[in-house]
Amino acid sequence: MTLTRRRLLAAASATAALPIVLPHAAWGQAPWPTRPVRIVVPFPAAGTTDILARALAPELQRVFGQPFVVDNKPGAGGNTGSAEVARAPADGHTLLMGTVGTHAINASLYAKMPYDPVKDFAPVTLVASVPNVLVVNPASAQKYGIASVADLVRVARANPGRLNMASSGNGTSIHLSGELFKAMTGTFMVHFPYRGSGPALMDLLAGNMDLMFDNLPSSMPHIKAGKLLALAVTSAQRSPALPDVPTVAEAGGDALKDYEASSWFGLFAPAGTPADVIARLQQETAKALALPAVNERLVAQGAVPVGNTPAAFAAFVDAETKKWARVVKTSGAKVD
User: What is the pLDDT of the chain when averaged over all its residues?
Assistant: First the structure.
């Protein structure tokens, strides 16, 4: 064998032993996103879930170079839209703006669920926590002489079933905030569930409802405009957005001294979504929430931006699920 032939064979053997190097797309995860990403909001437009999704969408679109489209799919206390996302392909192109209702309350409230809040979803990040606010239609406040939580308790006790309480739907945190209030004060107000916070607010503003425990961001513009009277916030501490408005616990006397009921909103993906997609979504969402324009906008509306890790969010959801299961049981609320 000639020297040249031996060299060629040696070179061929060495080449065969080397690892095959292919372009990134061939050996790693497929590029993402490759088309528009849909953020399903399981409630109507104009509610807090919708507000938060629409605040995030433009920032994520800017970073990832694909449209992030908010798609409202209301119904069944958030179950309709959530179930749709649970059944979607786990490729990162369909996300859910979930809530305390869809992922911590409904499993205890509904006799039959169209999805499993734990097994069917991958937590991405807690977007924001939001206190609810007890708001009263000004005409109703004047009619009944309600200027404080103490006044509301007095009027409700003296007139069982006279006051109408709107909510964003059976079993939502807005509804259960009211049920907890009723249970702790021994009062009865007629509950009218709507298909989301937006429609409930419209009837409250029109004077068809007397009061509501709404998410603060969706009520804030109407409070600032004097179209709704804010009696108290439902969180343990006062909201920086409404520093002069007391908490229910502060304003409600001994019966309400331990009252606390807040809402939260977070991004979820279908279970099985690639871990690197989840990680990128969480990181960019956290960055978006830290942007001064986004952060200041949300804080001004009463939201507290978060952006925690998927693991921290999962632990938070687990704790909230246990907490609200107790509230549902105490209230006796059920949806068939």
Answer: 90
Secondary structure of residue 131 in the 3-state scheme: strand
Which whole-number Å values give the CA distances from 12 to 6, 8, 64, in the listed order? 10, 6, 43
Residues 6+ apart with CB under 8 A from 184: 252, 255, 256, 258, 259
Please identify which residue in the block is written with the tokens 């050996």.
27
The verdict on pTM exceeding 0.85 is: no
Single-letter residue type at 203: D
Instruction: Pick the closest to residue 321 from 57, 97, 86, 99 (CA basis).
Output: 99
Q: Identify the helix (H) or strand (E) that includes residue 268.
A: strand 262-270
Helix, strand, coil share (%) of the chain residues, nearest 5: 50, 20, 35
Distance CA 295, CA 289 (A): 5
Distance of alpha carbon 254 from alpha carbon 332, whole angstroms: 23
Checking if the pLDDT of 309 tops 60, the result is yes
